[in-house]
Design goal:
Strand content: 15-25%
Number of strands: 18
Oligomer: single chain
Structural class: alpha+beta
Largest sheet: 4 strands, antiparallel
Length: 462
């Protein structure tokens, strides 16, 4: 298949990414720019434009203070433009400043005191962090936090399997930090790819320590761990081999052939390897044991290497939403504190990952751009609105952090210039600032190109 054909397939198959992606990005960008806007208004700065998106305007309106609120055709960002800006990056417009009258000078951003300019610039990333705290706090208050006991099942052939984890292990700690729930374990593992972890395990009453390194390539997660789930049948596909064999909801699979079954995952492994093979399956139904004969049908799937393989399918499912863990809600004060902690956790782990890239301990291949964000948005949207809102919080933190990088063109670059101005007692020359902005633009473009390359490789277009 040539590249053009692949792109055609990509556009058809992943069209549903677009709306969730635009929803998440628009919310995050709006609050970022709203931070700049509100503090600018508070400082008496005249705002000419508040734009969501770039390029030609789709629709907009003027407010009573003369600000043009607009939506544009390219929805990959946004900006607030002040009275004396040359462009959307708030580069000073020298010619415009020379032509300002006294009243306009009073509303000029670049004529404001240094602390006010710094406050306006920093307000965007801060608004992103506040948005994340509010979203997390709202989730903790209205929905709650899920707690599932960190008892694990192990995916056969995974990193965890090789390291010696066993189904039924109770995870107690990671690198000395207590693990209270399976969800906490997932967050820790998900942010420590390619980093060696020491995991405290309780197995049959004995305390053990297992050293393991999460890998990005492991499917479906970086360790190969999943929640311990008994092999209980909750749903049966009509007309499936399980239906024909006489399975009933509530059956507990205890044995397949001569193999004792402890977990749903263990049952899946045997069934998956037994396409078109008759299996003798013993289930516990109430107080009795029933023996059933079933032949898994063939299902062709594509594995992580792109190879088509045949697997067995029985047609039974477990409803993981029933009885797995508890949801604990918090009062607004506690929820806000937990939201701030969750926000800081994302910031700290992101910075740790970036440090590891610079130090050579991590690959930069995991850096993603708009295409991967769109894919993740579409995938998350399938799980419902709450996971999508949670993604908006994480993306808001990421955009806030990115904008604080000391790169001209970004908010952090402006703050860097203001820091130099504070030390020198006067701003850098226009020539120096112009060179800095050009370098910043080049760095941002290179980062975008690299991230887009990673995206295309990640979704197997390149």
């Amino acid at each position: 298949m040539d590249f053009a054909a692949q792109l055609g397939l990509f556009s058809d198959k992943y069209l549903f990414w677009i709306l969730p992606f635009l929803f998440v990005l628009t919310v995050v960008v709006f609050f970022h720019e709203l931070g700049h806007f509100l503090v600018a208004r508070w400082c008496g700065v005249a705002v000419k434009v508040f734009s969501i998106g770039f390029g030609r305007e789709i629709f907009g309106f003027n407010d009573r203070k003369g600000t043009r609120w607009r939506f544009a055709w390219i929805p990959l960002g946004g900006y607030v433009k002040f009275l004396d800006d040359e462009n959307a990056a708030s580069v000073p417009d020298k010619k415009s400043q020379d032509n300002l009258n006294a009243q306009e000078r009073a509303g000029s951003f670049h004529n404001k005191p240094l602390w006010q300019r710094s406050a306006v610039v920093a307000a965007g990333p801060i608004a992103n962090f506040i948005l994340a705290v509010v979203i997390f706090a709202g989730m903790f208050t209205l929905v709650g936090e899920r707690f599932t006991k960190p008892i694990i099942d192990v995916i056969q052939g995974s990193v965890a399997d090789t390291a010696g984890f066993k189904p039924g292990d109770l995870i107690g700690s990671v690198d000395g930090e207590p693990v209270e729930s399976f969800e906490v374990l997932q967050r820790i593992v998900g942010t420590n790819a390619n980093r060696e972890l020491t995991v405290g395990v309780n197995r049959d009453g004995a305390d053990l320590q297992v050293t393991i390194t999460p890998q990005n390539e492991t499917i479906p997660n970086m360790l190969g761990l999943r929640r311990f789930a008994p092999a209980q049948v909750d749903e049966i596909d009509p007309g499936s081999p399980a239906d024909k064999a006489g399975f009933k909801p509530g059956d507990l699979v205890v044995k397949i052939g001569e193999q004792d079954i402890e977990t749903f995952g263990g049952m899946q492994r045997i069934v998956s390897q037994s396409a078109n093979k008759e299996l003798t399956i013993v289930v516990r139904r109430g107080d009795t044991r029933v023996t059933l004969l079933a032949t898994p049908k063939v299902r062709r799937v594509t594995d992580a290497t792109g190879k088509t393989v045949e697997k067995g399918l029985l047609g039974i499912r477990r409803n993981t939403a029933s009885g797995d863990g508890i949801w604990k809600r918090y009062n607004p004060v506690t929820a806000t504190w937990l939201g701030a902690k969750r926000t800081w956790f994302v910031i700290a782990t992101t910075m740790s990952y970036l440090y590891d890239i610079v130090a050579g301990n991590q690959s930069a291949d995991q850096l993603g751009g708009p295409i991967r964000i769109a894919k993740v948005s579409g995938d998350v949207a399938k799980a419902g609105i709450l996971p999508l809102i949670n993604l908006a919080a994480v993306l808001s933190i990421s955009i806030g952090l990115l904008n604080l990088f000391p790169i001209p063109m970004l908010d952090g670059g402006h703050l860097l210039y203001y820091g130099i101005e504070a030390v020198r007692g006067r701003p850098l020359s226009e020539r120096a600032q112009e060179i800095g902005f050009r370098i910043g633009l080049a760095l941002v473009l290179m980062l975008m190109i690299w991230a887009t390359r990673n995206d295309l490789i990640h979704i197997r277009i390149l």
